[in-house]
Amino acid sequence: SLPSGKKTGLTLAPEVGSQRLQQVINKSTPEDEFLETAATAFDRGWTNLKLYFMLGLPTETMDDIEGIVQLVGKVSSSGMKARGKRPQLRISLSTFVPKPHTPFQWVAQEGEQGLEARHEVLKLGLRRKGVRLSWPEPKLSQLEAVLSRGDRRLGRVIYHAWQLGSTFDAWNEQFNYKNWLDAFEAVGLEADFYALRQRPLDEPLPWAHIDTGVTTAFLKQEYQRSLEAKETPDCRYQACNACGLERWQPACQ
């Protein structure tokens, strides 16, 4: 439910622009339900909405990106209908970063060129009054992917980058990509090896010795289901999915 009272900013997170991609990431919300939520917000006095999307997800195509354009257009029209003027929409575009212990821990991150192509489609398609776009520096997202799935050798890279002056690099104004490139070169490693490489399912992973409860077999199963756009039911409301946590949590059984 949406609160009454003073109307500050409101963030909605459709995340993707197509039903197919929702199924890939196992987060389905019917478009009509999302648009109904946005319409309710406008009816209750909100004029500024932030919409959160993620780019570069596995199996994503330009059709999915066009879906974002269409969805934002529908939200804008909804606000116009409710308020009699264009709403202010801030479109936040994050970059997908593969993470350990998830079904996408094996996938390659989308490269800088692919991300720039997506940004261009969105800039052209959403060139309208009241819509502002923002996204992180692609090189910073790539570095996040490197550090997320790195191995012990990256310790030397991090130390060398620090020696070169890299400290608060999560801040765009402090980020110096050249320091990191120089650090990788100094220790004989390549960032692309960690971020942009599709990993075989049987490749030993640096974090495989850490047991989070969820088994690798289950993650592989979920990865395959995502490639087929098959959703997995929420085990809080339906039967146990046998992810591995049932070994630790009797309530799962």
UniProtKB/TrEMBL annotation:
SUPFAM superfamilies found in the cross-reference section: Radical SAM enzymes
Secretion signal span: none
Regions annotated as coiled coil: none
Listed Gene3D superfamilies: 3.30.750.200
PANTHER family: RADICAL SAM DOMAIN PROTEIN (PTHR42731:SF1), SLL1084 PROTEIN (PTHR42731)
Name of the molecule in the record: B12-binding domain-containing radical SAM protein
Organism: marine sediment metagenome
Lineage: unclassified sequences, metagenomes, ecological metagenomes
